[in-house]
Amino acid sequence: MKNIFVIFGLLAVSNAVLEENSLHNDAWIEYKSEFGKQYDNETEEIRRFGIFLENKKYIEEHNKLYEMGNVSYDLGMNDFADLTDEEYWALSNPIPLNPSKILPGEEANRRSRRAAHDKIPDSFDWRTKKKVTVVKDQKGCTVCWAFATAGVIESHYAIKMGKLISLSEQNLVDCVAGGTKTNKCRPNNFYYPLQYVQQNGIMKESDYPYKPKGGDCKFKKNKSALKIKDFRQVTLGQEKDIRKFIATRGPLAVAISSQPKSFKLYKNGIYSNTECNNYETDHAVLIVGYGI
Questions:
Q1: What is the pTM of this model?
Q2: Mean pLDDT (10-residue bins), the chain, 292 residues
Q3: Superfamily holding 99-290
Q4: DSSP 8-state symbol, 231
Q5: CA 37/CA 58 separation, integer angstroms
């Protein structure tokens, strides 16, 4: 009789393992629902499920370190959790600077000289002053540059004019030099989109909504929300200089390294990783504040 119970017990354990590693896994079903995932066939879904399980394990192991206080940020499931690292890396591209528009560090410091005589707060956040629009999603299109460009213009316009306007990233994706219907989500730097807005203007997001692909330029001059007079790329290599600039002048559009696996699955906290490469930046973001 004891042997029978042992057999039943083994069958129960075996079924539990199969359930955990099958497409009926509750976490997998929840993930697909939350992020709107659909796959062409069962073979592809099985492949994506295997990648999901690997990333899930990585997240759980990392978050144990976070709970013990050994790392300063935690990880979580997101839209990239069913991608391999190689597929994720393919979504990013190098973001070069344009030397003709770099503002020398010495001049940048001179323009922010007044900050040396002012007390810079320990923490600062332009969002609390309602000078930053809501977080937006570029989805699978490699146009982070368009979001960072629109974001920095939105914030500086709001700081100067007192009015926060959500600008059209799609306007930049479709209309900045080099965009074609066959190269829909091409990478770029900050120079060309800023130059475009300086020369032509940019429409509101509500008039030219975002879709994660490129197309024909549909810019309408009479719908332009604003233009910019000038812009500069500032060489600020030290964190204290970045902090000073943000507190006294406004948010910064910057290029960072997004290559580490932990960045792919980042959720919350202060991100710090020695694997980041300052000389191979591939992702554009907007710095809106600092502190804890």
A1: 0.79
A2: 44 42 82 94 94 96 96 94 90 60 47 59 95 91 91 97 97 76 67 92 97 89 95 73 89 88 92 78 90 78
A3: Cysteine proteinases (3.90.70.10)
A4: -
A5: 21
